[in-house]
Amino acid sequence: CAEGYFGQPSLPGGSCQPCQCNDNLDFSIPGSCDSFSGSCLICKPGTTGRYCELCADGYFGDAVDAKNCQPCHCNANGSFSEVCHAQTGQCECKPNVQGRQCDECKPTMWWDPEKRFCVSCGCNPIGSVTAQCDITGRCVCKSGFVGKQCNLSRQVHRQKEQPQRAQPVLGSPQRWGVSSSSGCPRGAYRPAAPPETFGLQSARGCIPCNCNSFGSKSFDCEESGQCWCQPGVTGKKCDRCAHGYFNFQEGGCTDLIFAFFEKVQWIGMFALFIYHIIARKTKNPLKRNKAGACDCSHLGNNCDPKTGRCICPPNTIGEKCSKCVPNTWGHSITTGC
């Protein structure tokens, strides 16, 4: 029988019949249907079964009529498995978690990134407006109460709290993320409130952090608007190299001295060899000028006190150290080539 058909035409009365795979089979793939039994062997992605009549594990929907099998997308942090209900798509949620994809904490719960599960808000019923807290676990306090759970009286606790900076949950949807203690969404901050407000939120709106994507560790920032910079990077937005660093790129800047010693191990030896050869062949060494300084092309005008020859920076040659040795570039009067 041809591809997409099955049967035994060689027997008396035998014939070839179409494979019944609910249109969930690609007949252009050789061997996708068993030529003797008619079993569907290679179903389209997301479907399974002898006749490709079911949604595969990790998918849900209707494989026969609607043909809409789609991934479950169960949240890895909030569900027990990647497999969901074959018809409804409901994932199997862990305790205190809800939602079809198990990506939300139940009311009066919040996601603790350190414990990696939903924990109770624990809002003080006397000092809090409601039992619900925000995604950092901070409750909404009544007038006269402060603290993360509104369990402190303002009369005896007049200093602003300094909550620890929470960390985002890697590999999870945005709703698992963490906002700042000011109530602003991630990537924004609220200007600090005046001291007389005792730590209550400022009436000003949230301001975007606008952290540089290359120079910052995340798009979050401190309550002052200062972004979290990569090594060797500075600036409120982490948008430039700090002093002594160069090569601004994703992940931070390169230490100038470290990069120099790392890259000139063998080039430096070769440059030193060339320098000695040229030095030996130089018959008219440079003389000091009337002011007593050498006429060299580098910062400091360092030269040999006996011969008057310039003491060249790394990877530079010439009577005045004004040229780069072969295979080097970027002449600088301070660092050489």
From TrEMBL:
It is found in: Secreted, Extracellular space, Extracellular matrix, Basement membrane. GO terms for cellular component: basement membrane; extracellular region. Coiled coil: none annotated. GO terms for biological process: animal organ morphogenesis; axon guidance; tissue development. PANTHER family: LAMININ SUBUNIT ALPHA-2 (PTHR10574:SF291), NETRIN/LAMININ-RELATED (PTHR10574). Residues 19-71, 72-125, 209-255, 294-337 form the Laminin EGF-like domain. Keywords: Basement membrane, Disulfide bond, Extracellular matrix, Glycoprotein, Laminin EGF-like domain, Membrane, Repeat, Secreted, Signal, Transmembrane, Transmembrane helix. GO terms for molecular function: extracellular matrix structural constituent. The chain crosses the membrane at residues 256-278. Disulfide bonds join C43-C52, C55-C69, C72-C84, C74-C91, C93-C102, C209-C221, C229-C238, C312-C321. InterPro entries: Laminin/Netrin_ECM, LE_dom. It comes from Balaenoptera physalus. The keyword Magnesium does not apply. Its main location: secreted. This is Laminin EGF-like domain-containing protein.
